[in-house]
Amino acid sequence: MKEWMRVLRNGLSLENPLTVLMIGLCSTLAVSTKLEGAFFMGIGVIFVLVMSNVLIAAVRKFTPDEVRIPIFIVIIASFVTIVDLVMKAYLPSVYSFLGVWIPLIVVNCIVLGRAEAFAYHNTVWLSVADGIGMGLGYTVIIAGLAAFRELFGSGQLQFLGATLVTMPAFYRPPNILLLFPGAFILFGLIIAGSQALNRRIAAKDAAQAASLKEAV
Amino acid sequence: MLRLYMRLGIPVLVVCIVAAAGLGVTYAMTKDKIAAQDREAKAKSLRIVLGRAKSFVELDAKKDAVVYEKATAAAVDVRVDGLFRALDGTGAQVGWGLLVAPRGYGGPISMAVGVDRNGKVTGATIASMNETPGLGTKVITQKDWLPRFSGLDTSAGTESVRKIDTIMGATKSSRGVRKGVGAAAAIYTDVLKSLEGGSGQ
User: Fold this and answer.
1) Burial profile B36-73: b = 16 or more Cβ within 10 angstroms, e = fewer
2) pTM of the entire predicted model
């Protein structure tokens, strides 16, 4: 269980796919203009990541090394298609906002990257933790970035048709926040912040390991 | 050699079969809901441009293939997504609803245009687009711009929209929208007008 929690935490902090591994960035910059869209993009990625991690870990013993990539891709593409169909049927407004980014989850570096780097070499149970951790790590960053860009870039924050926050009338939203340069600048700040946080976590881990050694 | 093919091929084959089965089930479960959402989305934008109509009947893609063919030719490089007869409560035709998708700056702009039986544009609306936030999106956020198309005479076809100015800072996007209405006008004057219920009272 301890190992499970460690894997889960790594996805969120020390090995966060966006701020540390820096993979899956194109969708992050593109769909983080609206909280609602970014949130459901995150949910879609979590679903695909967990399900494909589980399946790939489950069949890893029967997967010949030479053809593992086509097998990964078929599994991942199937789950993405499920997300695509379900979202189209039940969340049409979110679906039309996300557009091509839903099918593009198939080639999202995080999903294939975790299949190759983690699920293929680990148990099903640990792969679940990795899927949830990485998925949440992605969702937290993208939703946070989107909330900031939407609130300060458009002057109000909406979710599923409800307006959560509106900026006072004198506030003139700077356009740059909704454009790509704004996303780059904000994302750079997020990386800096999470690096500082990760350094603390790593230092705490090291101190813990040292005291454990002493006790032995 | 054959054994090698089997060893590599069979796992891939099995995965594909299982995936196909899973997708088949998901598709069957969501098919009707997706079709309903699609119809609802189309009807919603058509109601905006032709509020007088109570129902919209789409021209059948197979039965009216010739109409669609001619419409596509009239629209030149604007995509035609659907042609609808607009009917009032009694079933009498009050005009036409057209779904067109001209190219904007960030890809196609899906829009609906309504034309009444006198050949006047009753309205134009944008269902979905991918224009630059804050710049191209002015075609929607500049509230007095889209209504300018209402009442436009379609008799000059694609040239009908000439007198509507584009928006500064959203030149490509507003030119796209203008082209969409122009294409709708051309489809009406070249094709729909001569169809039954197309013009005159």
Assistant:
1) ebeeebbbebbbbbbeebeebebbeeeeeeebbebbbe
2) 0.81
